[in-house]
TrEMBL record:
Keywords: ATP-binding, Coenzyme A biosynthesis, Cytoplasm, Kinase, Nucleotide-binding, Transferase
Binding residues annotated for ATP, in chain numbering: G16, S17, G18, K19, S20, A21
GO CC annotation: cytoplasm
The keyword Cytoplasm belongs to this UniProt entry's keyword annotation: yes
Name the record gives this protein: Dephospho-CoA kinase
Lineage of the organism: Bacteria, Pseudomonadati, Pseudomonadota, Gammaproteobacteria, Pseudomonadales
Gene: coaE
Pathway: Cofactor biosynthesis; coenzyme A biosynthesis; CoA from (R)-pantothenate: step 5/5
Source species of the chain: Pseudomonas cavernae
The protein's Enzyme Commission number: 2.7.1.24
């Protein structure tokens, strides 16, 4: 008898919400996970067509000496120019989605997870059957991110402003995990959700 195709859980949350810790515990429980941020890096590795197109469009100045993409240089170019940002997104988003799909297709767990900070904004939620939002107060998000990245409150606020508003994420959520306690409690909650997800067919109760 063939195994049913794994359904896809979208996992998202704002910066500093703890989605990486949540994703890692799901992985520890044997769930196949794909990180959209990793996929975004894979598609611009040297030797991949996207990198050649980016270098052709923006010039060699966006490449490092070793041929890797100079992310900081590219970021500077597109932040000042919305048209250039749209050009880059039009090139990369379909490639990232294809990369994600290929990695999800390798899943051998009953369900697989797509971890993406921009799940809603990028439209990636369209390939998922269920959405889990890791939520926490903005105050906690700022505290945690400042601690983790040794960055200023202003920089964190700027990143928060660029991400989907909390209300928008929660509007798309099938499940919400409020991460405002310790790691032990968080693990217990992930295990509870995991047991529930194993009972689902196609991601819906």
């Amino acid at each position: 008898m063939t195994q049913p195709t794994p359904w896809i859980l979208g996992l998202t949350g704002g910066i500093g919400s703890g989605k990486s810790a949540v994703a890692q515990h799901f992985i520890d429980l044997g769930v196949h996970a794909v990180d959209a941020d990793h996929a975004a890096r894979w598609v611009v590795e040297p030797g991949r067509p996207a990198l050649a197109q980016i270098a052709e469009h923006f010039g060699e100045a966006v490449l490092l000496a070793d041929g890797q993409l100079d992310r900081a240089a590219l970021r500077t170019r597109i932040f000042q120019n919305p048209e250039e940002r749209r050009w880059l997104e039009a090139l990369l988003h379909p490639l990232i989605r294809q990369e994600i799909s290929e990695h999800l297709a390798r899943a051998d767990s009953p369900y697989a997870i797509l971890v993406s900070p921009l799940l809603i904004e990028s439209g990636q939620h369209q390939i998922t059957q269920r959405i889990l939002v890791v939520d926490t107060s903005e105050e906690l998000q700022v505290q945690r991110t400042m601690l983790r990245d040794r960055t200023s409150a202003e920089q964190v606020q700027a990143i928060l402003a660029a991400q989907a508003k909390r209300e928008e994420r929660l509007r798309h959520a099938d499940d919400v995990l409020v991460n405002d306690r310790d790691l032990g409690w968080l693990h217990t909650e992930v295990e509870r959700l995991h047991r529930f997800y194993l009972t689902l067919r196609g991601g819906q109760a």
